[in-house]
Amino acid sequence: MALIVQKYGGTSVGSPERIRNVAARLLATQAEGHRVVAVVSAMGGVTNRLIELASEVTAGAKTTEREMDVLLATGEQTSIALTAMAINSLGGSACSLTGAQAGISTDGVHTKARIANITPEKIHELLDGGQIVVVAGFQGTTTDGSITTLGRGGSDLTAIALAGALKADLCQIFTDVDGVYTCDPRVVKDAKKIEEISYDELLEMASSGSKVMQSRSVEFAKKFGVVFEVRSSLNNNPGTLVKEENMSMEAVVIRGVSLERDQAKITISGVSDVPGVAAKIFQRISDANIVVDMIVQNVSRTGIADISFTLTKAELGKAKEVLEPLVSQFGGSAKLDAEDGIAKLSVVGIGMRSHSGVASQMFQALAEAGINILMISTSEIKTAVIIAEDRIDQAANVVHRAFGLSGATA
Ligand code: ADP
Ligand code: ASP
Ligand code: MG
Question: 179 CA to middle of ligand 1, Å?
Answer without folding.
Answer: 8
